[in-house]
């Protein structure tokens, strides 16, 4: 990826320009990303993982792109962690929808009062 990050304030653990080359990129459904982060956890994840995250909303899509900058091992580990968190959140939402459908079906199948 040839475009440099748009962020001006680099965390002290990110070494420019070496760590800003070739970010790891993952695309996550915007709804999942909001449920995962809510915006406030990004600085914490950056500090603990020793990476810099850049979030870009993709136009005409329900996807958000997350770019992970930093040393290679930290980038790969953080990308894997974020993918795992997104999958877990997706499964939790899916289970919730299935439970809701089951509850709605049980209400429809119950005896009707006149």
Automatic annotation (TrEMBL):
Belongs to the KHDC1 family. It comes from Camelus ferus (Wild bactrian camel). Residues 11-93 form the KH-like RNA-binding domain. The lineage of its organism: Eukaryota, Metazoa, Chordata, Craniata, Vertebrata. This is Developmental pluripotency-associated 5 protein isoform X2. It comes from the Eukaryota. InterPro entries: KH_dom_type_1_sf (IPR036612), MOEP19_KH-like (IPR031952). Gene3D superfamilies: K Homology domain, type 1. GO terms for cellular component: cytoplasm. GO terms for biological process: regulation of gene expression. PANTHER family: DEVELOPMENT PLURPOTENCY-ASSOCIATED PROTEIN 1/5 FAMILY MEMBER, DEVELOPMENTAL PLURIPOTENCY-ASSOCIATED 5 PROTEIN. One of its GO terms (molecular function) is mRNA binding.
